[in-house]
Design goal:
Layout lengths: L1 H7 L2 H11 L2 H14 L8 H8 L4 H12 L1
């Protein structure tokens, strides 16, 4: 379902819909991967990394790392 939605919508609306349909850790990994894959130098996209990582416990960061490696 998420793949179909990603092919039909884009931008902030895509991010919203995908975020609502995806478990939290998986969505955060998806967000991190999108930032890393971007080749432009738009620093506002780096704010996404801060939003995902700041305030996480060590256990939550470990869960993110595990999910990212999959």
């Amino acid at each position: 379902l998420v793949d179909h939605i990603e092919s039909e919508v884009f931008g902030n609306f895509e991010n919203l819909v995908v975020g609502l349909l995806t478990p939290t850790v998986e969505y955060e990994v998806w967000s991190i991967r999108r930032v890393i894959q971007e080749t432009d130098t738009d620093t506002s996209k780096h704010d996404i990394l801060l939003e995902v990582l700041v305030g996480k416990t060590n256990e939550e960061i470990a869960a993110l790392k595990d999910a990212y490696r999959r």
